[in-house]
């Protein structure tokens, strides 16, 4: 099993789902960022984040995500979040998304479905369009305030 699948199992054991696990660098510091979601999209409390941190820390002591020093962050991906892999899109069906495709083409609308590697997007007052995941350069959810 991979580290991410082990973390996913731990997160799911407490009734949550793993949104993403990434290694990033900010201000010269390496961060292993684990994003978790409530399975019913009710939000994730600080208490749940702390609990997951305590559960996965021993695993990371044995199988560190990077060599050298790093900081573990466990949190919610937020209401506006990057969509980087197929599972992110599947978990965002019904939400408003913004997509930058190859050729600088931009799309905004409600993600209505994901079939195979195709994203079905419903722009406001337009027909559903299909955007192949392979054409996506950058994507994120957005919230209209």
List the helices and strands and how they pair.
Layout: H1 3-13, E1 16-26, E2 29-38, H2 46-62, E3 71-75, H3 86-90, E4 96-101, E5 106-115, E6 118-122, E7 129-132, E8 136-141
Parallel strand pairs: 2-3
Antiparallel strand pairs: 1-2, 4-5, 4-8, 5-6, 6-7
Helix pairs in contact: 1-2
Task: Explain how this protein is built.
The protein is an alpha+beta fold and 145 residues long. The protein folds into 2 domains: 3-75, 2-Layer Sandwich (GMP Synthetase, Chain A, domain 3); 86-141, SH3 type barrels (Roll), CATH 2.30.30. 23% of the residues lie in helices and 39% in strands. It contains 3 helices and 8 strands. The strands form 2 sheets. Strands 7-6-5-4-8 form a 5-stranded antiparallel β-sheet. Strands 1-2-3 form a 3-stranded mixed β-sheet. A hairpin with a 2-residue loop joins strand 1 and strand 2. The chain is elongated and about 50 Å long. The protein starts with a helix and ends with a strand. The mean pLDDT is 92.
Strand content: 35-45%
Number of helices: 3
What structural class should be given to the helix and strand makeup? alpha+beta
Q: What overall form do the CA principal axes indicate?
A: elongated
- Rg is 17 Å
How many structural domains can be distinguished in the coordinates?
A: 2
Sketch the major β-sheet. 5 strands, antiparallel
Order of helices and strands: HEEHEHEEEEE
Give the strand order, joined by hyphens, for the main sheet. Answer: 7-6-5-4-8
């Amino acid at each position: 099993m991979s580290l991410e699948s082990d973390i996913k199992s731990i997160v799911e054991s407490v009734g949550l789902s793993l949104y993403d696990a990434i290694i990033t660098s900010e201000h010269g510091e390496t961060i292993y960022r684990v994003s978790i979601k409530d399975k019913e999209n009710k939000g994730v409390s600080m208490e749940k984040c702390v609990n997951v941190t305590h559960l996965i820390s021993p695993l990371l002591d044995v199988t560190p995500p990077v060599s050298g020093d790093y900081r573990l962050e466990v949190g919610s991906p937020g209401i506006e979040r990057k969509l980087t892999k197929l599972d992110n899109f599947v978990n965002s069906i019904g939400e408003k998304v913004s997509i930058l495709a190859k050729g600088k083409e931009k799309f905004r609308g409600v993600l209505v479905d994901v079939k195979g590697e195709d994203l079905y997007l419903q722009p406001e007052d337009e027909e559903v369009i299909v955007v192949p995941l392979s054409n996506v350069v950058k994507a994120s959810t957005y919230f209209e305030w």
